[in-house]
Amino acid sequence: MIQKLLVIGSLFFCFGFQKANAQSYNFNTSGFSVLEKGANGKWGKWSDLELANIRVTLDTNKNRIVIYSQVIQLFQIIEYQPSTESETDIVYTFSCVDNDGVDCTVSIITRKKQDNRKQLYINYGDQIIVYNIFNAD
Q: 63: phi > 0 → left, psi -120 to 50 → alpha, else beta; which?
């Protein structure tokens, strides 16, 4: 429980949201890309960035992340991992289960040396989806 509160507090300060008691954080995407492992077990190349304006919500009250794409992607947060910070990144990681019951890791990364650009990564082990995100108004 304390770990969850620390993550929520850190998210609040990192993302600078309007309401002090808000437990739902809203983002929009500007694009996404996909990386997959080949049959040989080696990572391929990132796909070309696809432009996409999609709403994303991190709801810590309901312990879920929702990506409102054409097919809604729902990630139930099973565990809030400790946040990490380096010279270049701030990383918030969540162990999740998607709406098909598949385990995955979702991370929200702030790129400190890239004007605090934010990215959302969904890692399935053999496939990674990255969304470029920004705070929604």
A: left
